[in-house]
Design goal:
The chain has 2 domains: 255 residues, no CATH class; 70 residues, SH3 Domains (SH3 type barrels), CATH 2.30.30.40. Strands 6-5-4-1-7 form a 5-stranded antiparallel sheet, with no helix packed on it. A two-stranded antiparallel ribbon has the order 2-3. α6 packs antiparallel against α7. With 393 residues, it is α+β, with helices and mostly antiparallel strands.
Length: 393
Amino acid sequence: MNINSNPPRISGDHDSISPSRRRRRKRRIIPEGKDAREQFISELAQSLVPSVDYFLLMVLAGAVLGFAILVDSPSLFVLVALIAPFMRPIAATSLATIVGSWGYFVQALGGLTVGSLFVFLTGVLTGWVSRMFPDQPYEQAYLHAHFSIADFLLLTFGAVALIFLLIRAPNKKPIIASVALAFELILPLGVAGFGMTANVPNIWPDALIVFLVHLAWSALIGTIVLAFLGFRPINFFGYTLGSTFALLSLVAFIVISGMGTAISTRVAMPPPTSTITPTITVTATVTNTPIPPTITTTPTNTLVPTKTPTLTYTPKPTPVWGKIKPNEFGGAVVRTEPSFDGDVVKMLASDWLVEILPDVVDDGTHTWIHIRTTENEEGWILSTLLITATPNP
């Protein structure tokens, strides 16, 4: 329910207002009058202070996220965003520019930091546990450790909707907008903690950069929406070295440095997906055609047949190709040695084509096959995860 801070009007004054002006007043989001506006902002700011249930739900969301990473289940990743708490600190961080108070800015940022720390530490613990499952591909963790246009669109929608709906109806929680923000903030943060301790490449610090850029972008979008709605800092402190300067400086630094580093070093950038088409080499068969002798009219000449040299071709062996067998893990792990103790060279998805080399090692329990990827990376893979196929000419 909106706070009705406008003073009562007598009927005569109300009747003297034109119908168009009355309609504009009804559509007005910000209360009229300085006192009413300050009261409205103060009450909204107090409602956005993180409570105990916020931190408890962050711990629960982090635990579910850790399990979702281990089982590599997309549906459980969505469940994490659904059970996450209402993202109060994100709105409070943007609103701090309007309140113009260092204390409120630090309170909002502190609540966000503590809640994020719970999720990150849960991810760190999950990374230690993941070392017990070296063959798990962790494809969903890879997805949330990279930037994408779809993620930025969803993040922007969530930030705009959260601030706009909170201002329009302060006593209601825009759950859908909060779920969108939780999906784009909590998931990369937990994946970052997982990648820090897991023996899986290309996740840390990629996911941490994604989280920081998403966080800065959501705070910046929230501030822009508040300015668009007509909110300005209450006091002079909000215009100077207060929370406005601190927030916008933080946003500019993280966005510029984080995105610049990501693009220049390919950190948190999705790897290019290549379509592999095996090239079939056909060896031609050469047929020697004898040249007929040339007959002359001189009877003393003896006709000698001209011999055509025979060309000998040494055929090259046709490479043997195979593809990763679809399995419950969604792919296979390529290692530097034919052993589970070997370092991980690459993660290959299901149906990925590889060249099979002639080396085979049988350790008595498992059979390892030497393979080469299309990017000329060699390694060893379990024979049970491979389907061999030799292309026909």
